[in-house]
Amino acid sequence: SSGINAEYGGLGYCVAAEIEGGTCQFPNLTCGEDNGPGSSSYGDFWVTMTANYKILLVGNPTRNDRPGDMYDAETVGGEKTIGPATACAINGIDIQGPNDAGDVSIDEAGIQLTCGGHVTPPLGNIPPGPGPPGPGGPPLYHFHKSPECLEPFLNASIGAGHGARPFSHGQLVGWAMDGFGIYSYQDVGGAAPIVDECGGHFGPTDTGKIEYHYHSRTYVPYHMACQGPSLGNCASTQRGTNYCHPGCGYEVCVQPGTDEGALRDYLGQWDPTWLDQYTVNPFHGPQAVEDEGEDNLVERLAKDILEMFA
User: What is the pTM of this model?
Assistant: First the structure.
């Protein structure tokens, strides 16, 4: 009834309005045709594939080439077989950048994702084009946004009565290609992470160890916009649309309450004077309370409710 025919391309991969309006991101694909591995005249199907990653065990935040491109692996000594991967989740599925098949974010494109991920169409017969690295090959499930169905997110969201720990530092979600961990939403004490333009900061993780790391979030850049620290230069790493986080207003961002001595010991592995070379947000002050325990948590919640109606 729409009057669309095969000459438009994109049939089966874009809605009618996208095809007619010329905004379909897959104009060279038509479902049922030979689109490479994973495609057939009956539609697309899964093809077994293996992805490989080589990621540093310890990232170095004092490198003189920071910030870096979020898609880069080679510069930091890593390797990957999936071009658009920026990180690898704890379940082995790759985490890709904030955009998909175009230069707008997932949310701006109106793409609905379950558990933060979706399947790429078969792209084995499409030659690579300009811009950020794109996927190629058979249908591939991958994440863009936060995979909230994984344990690191459920740990805080299932409710206090079921053992949730929303006032603990977020748990490990995955590893970025530069060797730094990506953690779920909250920081120590349930506080919001104070992050730089890349989406990372210095502070304790869920183990209490102070190091540079990233945090997932519900908005762009979702996980990371560049390989940090950003040092106020995230925009220089972007290939088109700027996906940088607003940052904390300083070149280096440290979570409030972080112990300065422990932070300097961490940075001293590479350069004891590194922190003094940049502007740093005020972070001295009392450390947020970590993991209050179930009884104290209930008391705190009850007190908060009473204060609301006082």
Answer: 0.83
